[in-house]
């Protein structure tokens, strides 16, 4: 149909409805059949015996919610007389469209200048345009922020994004803080970049399924900090300006029970402790006087220091030896070891004679060796010791 000027409005509203009641002289409340639309009391025309009633507090009636919370209960300030004819006409002129409009893919403009719209011109896809820019898109089970658009944290419940599927941000930067200078991004393929305080400080990559963590700033360190009993500490620093040297606050700890490694370049144990040396001829143990021994074990090597003093030979005779070494020596061929004595007293040996220690393989025994024969050494005997003999020593051996 042809027309001049603006196209006529083709939107239809609901027709007014009429509710009828009969007074009984006591009832003051009456519930309408339909919820009263926007406009409230002003959307009603209430009559008692064909006399229109004035709405409002202190007037003839008020409008309120019924028992279900719906806006459709009229309460009269005084009960209408018995047999009084009551009728109410409800106008729906202020109600939103009662008839759904099929836009069939046409763009629906939302603001005054027409540059903010919703459209579904692509099947099964809703596009939202704001200020003439395509910002957001809905498809089945998917909400997409278009390039250049941001989903603010305030828009997410309790700033938490919950999803049962993958959130794909396609290499875009994920901002984590309020001033936008701390973020995570993967705009370089197969690499995660972490930025803090607007500085790219860390990169995470994959090298043949090895996780590779890279400090991205030249000569800057990787530092591990923590809280030790309420005190802030720097536990470990990897010094990148010095070739990656590890700097620990309190040393490197090893388990109490060694976890042995076969790697030639692996240090798998370190231990410090004390041991109690004893002296015997194999059958009789000399009476010791204040024996002292300390050791340090580094990997396969044990370093021992100590002192052995006696107060009685206790019938010992023949070759004497130190027992009670802290670890069993290695049985590997060629793993011979020993040390020297740096002090002696009360011994029955010839002046200028040297006393050394020899650790036998596969045991916890060290023999005293004297350089007293032309061909080499001999084992020290109880006769070359004495009741009150004393010696200080150091030696090392493999385990």
Describe the structure.
This protein is mainly β and 399 residues long. Among the domains are: 17-90, no CATH class; 101-149; 272-398. Helix content is 0%, strand content 42%. It is built from no helices and 31 strands. The chain has strands spanning 17-22, 29-31, 44-48, 51-52, 61-65, 71-76, 85-90, 108-109, 117-119, 126-130, 133-139, 142-145, 174-175, 183-185, 191-196, 199-207, 210-215, 222-228, 231-239, 245-248, 270-275, 278-280, 287-288, 292-298, 301-312, 321-323, 337-345, 355-359, 365-373, 376-379, 390-398. Strands 21, 22, 23, 24, 25, 26, 27, 28, 29, 30 and 31 form an eleven-stranded antiparallel β-sheet that branches. It has a five-stranded antiparallel β-sheet with strand order 8-9-10-11-12, with no helix packed on it. The protein has a five-stranded antiparallel β-sheet with strand order 13-14-15-16-17, with no helix packed on it. Strand 29 and strand 30 (376-379) form a beta hairpin. The protein is elongated, with a radius of gyration of 49 Å.
